[in-house]
Amino acid sequence: TAVTNDGDLDTWPTIVIYGPVSKPKITNVTSGEFLELDINLASSSESAIITYDQDSLSVVASGVNVYGKLTTGSSLFKIKPGNNDLTFTGASLGVGAQAIINWRDSWPLS
């Protein structure tokens, strides 16, 4: 999926992942960075909400902090200016599994 940051600066995303999916992974193909969780979201009613910026971090799945479930090599990547090609994969993806990514275009304060 193409994501476009029309700003001049990298920007922080919010990622919401809905099951069914095991070991969900969001990859920014453009930068080579990825974020992967070693969790299982068994149904479409289960979700993982990942929010982070320079001041805060929250990785919650079904109401439980799962920050410790980030896999080795995962990074809390930013959306780069311009086009970013993002993919959503997992060890197992069920029907209806999806990831929703929100961001704001970012410019320097002047």
SSE topology:
Blueprint: E1 2-5, E2 14-18, E3 21-22, E4 25-28, E5 33-36, E6 40-41, E7 47-52, E8 57-61, E9 64-65, E10 82-89, E11 92-93, E12 98-102
Antiparallel strand pairs: 1-10, 2-7, 2-12, 3-6, 3-11, 4-5, 4-10, 7-8, 8-9
Instruction: Give me the secondary-structure category.
Output: mainly beta
Percent strand: 35-45%
- What is the makeup of the main sheet? 5 strands, antiparallel
Q: What is the helix fraction of residues, given as a range?
A: under 10%
- The residue-averaged pLDDT reads 93
What Rg do the Cα atoms give? 14 Å
Number of helices: 0
Q: Write down the secondary-structure element order.
A: EEEEEEEEEEEE
- Show unreliable segments: none
The number of E-state strands comes to 12
Subunit arrangement of the protein: single chain
Would you mind describing this structure in some detail?
The protein has 110 residues and is mostly beta strands. It is 0% helix and 45% strand. The protein contains no helices and 12 strands. The strands form 3 sheets. The chain has a 5-stranded antiparallel sheet, with no helix packed on it. The protein has a 4-stranded antiparallel sheet with strand order 1-10-4-5, with no helix packed on it. Strands 6-3-11 form a 3-stranded antiparallel sheet, with no helix packed on it. A hairpin with a 4-residue loop joins strand 7 and strand 8. It starts with a strand and ends in an 8-residue tail after the last strand. The model has no long low-confidence stretch (mean pLDDT 93).
